Amino acid sequence: MHRQEAIQALIEARLASLREASEKRDVDALMSWHAKDAVFTDVVNGISREGIDAIRQFYTQAYTAMPTFRITEPKVTGFTPEFVTAEMRCEGEAVMDLPHAGLKAGETLRLIGVSLFWWRWEGEGAEWDESLSDEAVRGWKIVRERSYYNFTNKGSQ
């Protein structure tokens, strides 16, 4: 059984890296956190992507349409390394019309979201040894994510 202090530090390290990749719109950095057989589901739109190539394509399109993005007030809850919830507020500017989101180019999207993450150890050794080295933290891969969100304020400012 892992110590809660180590689990919480691991969760925070993973979140910080995921947030940085998302805000920088760095698809390669984001994909480095996903297992090859990962599944991403946008529950709101009923969209599911299976496998790292399909997830990469999804994020490439999303990042192209909305090249600036900020995540504020992130809160994570997790008591095991394998399952974590993340709550956040997000904001980004569309550079093209996004009819499914009710946005026109130049408008700002604001939302409150929750993502559920299932993680799997793929690092060295049979299991995580509670190390917080970059190599050990990156030994964890997302195998499933379910994303829920609600638009809070759409339009130009």
TrEMBL record:
It comes from Tothia fuscella. InterPro entries: NTF2-like_dom_sf, SnoaL-like. SUPFAM superfamilies: NTF2-like (SSF54427). Pfam families: SnoaL_2. Gene3D superfamilies: 3.10.450.50. It comes from the Eukaryota. Residues 20-120 form the SnoaL-like domain. The lineage of its organism: Eukaryota, Fungi, Dikarya, Ascomycota, Pezizomycotina. This is SnoaL-like domain-containing protein. Transmembrane segments: none annotated.
